[in-house]
Amino acid sequence: MIDAGPTVVGETIFFGDGEGYLYALDANTGKEKWVFDGGDPVNSFPIVIDNTLYYSTLDRIFAIDVKTGKQKWRFKTSHIINAVPVFTKDAFYYGDSLEDFYAVDIGIRKEKWKVAGRKITMWSSPGVDGETVYFGAWNRNFYALDTTSGKEKWVFKTDDITDNPPVISGSTVCFTDFDRTLYALDTRTGKEKWRLQVLTGLHSPLIIADGTVYFGCDNGLFAVDLKTGQEKWRYNVGDGIEKCPAIADGVAYFSRGVVGDDDSKFGLYAVDIKTGKPIWAFPLPEKYPTAPAAADGTVYVGSDNTLYAIRGK
Fold first, then answer.
1. Spatial contact of 232 and 212, defined as CB atoms under 8 Å apart
2. Which of 3, 9, 165, 226 sits a CA distance of 20 to 30 A from 46?
3. CA 192, CA 11: separation in Å to the nearest integer?
4. What is the pLDDT of residues 137-148, one digit of tens each?
5. Could you give the CA distance from residue 74 to residue 70 in angstroms, rounded to a whole number?
6. How far apart are CA 34 and CA 97, in angstroms?
7. DSSP state, 199?
8. Model pTM score
9. How far apart are CA 125 and CA 155, in angstroms?
10. Buried b (16+ CB within 10 A) or exposed e, 94-126
């Protein structure tokens, strides 16, 4: 089963499955380029930096050559990884089940620094922007740490537990909590720019494009102005969106799986990002689609054991 969303780079699409296999397919034809067997279920979407693909399992991080599918290295963590690590050219960052947070040198796979003893339980991935790494924790704190030293730059107190990865755009970092609140903070000072209380459960990770924050909720897809925090529009599909939407060519694509006993609307949707009006909906025979990926006029989405390529707008 394909659990995490695919990644498209150039003319290749990468994705993993629950059997431990990582695939590279030709994005135009769907033909297999290579397969890598890591042994453990792939629970993260692939991340490609230069000629290296990174992905994680419960307690391992892999680096794979994107052209050949050969393993460059694998890193065994001391404890279970709570969320998908974030990668840069120089390091990767993650939190583990012992409530510690790590920065590891990506070249030599040695610990750069560790934050321990603060009860930092986290279930969402961190975000990195230049010299700062950001993440929220179950102690209702949102942290900004120096990527070189691990020293705290600032801490912001939230109303509830942070439940999704932060996203950064310019001088603004956005994130959500279990209290149905979307926050926007100044990246330099940690001061609040605005917050939006959404009267419905916040489910999907955020994505920022062209000055707008997009995210899925209990009853549909929301678009919020990044500067003001004002709602631009919402598209109601009647139930929850749990996967991160994809934005491409003026269109927001999102998938909807089975929520509760309602299995009547699962599939892939396309919405105009200016108006929030629907463009099309594509039903899927399987009920648990991944987050979509979009590139060059095509949308890719995994559902159960199948990867689909669907013509976009």
1. yes
2. 226
3. 41
4. 888 999 999 999
5. 11
6. 33
7. S
8. 0.92
9. 17
10. bbbeebbbbbbebeeeeebbebeeeebbbebbb
